[in-house]
Amino acid sequence: MLDVTRRFGLYFAWIVAVVAMLGSLYFSEILRFEPCKLCWLQRICMYPLSLLLGIAAYRGERSIVSYAMPLAIIGGLISLWHTLEQKIPALAELAPCTIGVPCNEDYLDGFVTIPMLALIAFILIIIFLAIGRNEPADE
To answer: Which chain regions cross the lipid bilayer (predicted)?
Structure first.
């Protein structure tokens, strides 16, 4: 299983990025959930990944990992903060959103939130990039 993940890690990371991008567009364009400031910052990290990882996976360019990993880590940290801000009300008071939708607004009204979904996507991308950065041993 590790060899499969190593061989197709870029493809798996790309699929996660595309699904996350399409999911964010679905939430904002179809369901009309207005993105907050932190959502936009997460999108700034995710959207380029869906393009860059797709090109790199198609070309087999594993060197993209050193460029994609910082975007995924920064996006993951923003998603982590956003998730914590929604789950711990006192954190939302430290740096409140002053324009548009409050960052602690929970559109899904449950345990799983949109920033938590983004965090899961960034974590999966980081894992797939870390595992898929090298060629499988049998090649």
So the answer is: 9-28, 40-58, 65-84, 111-131
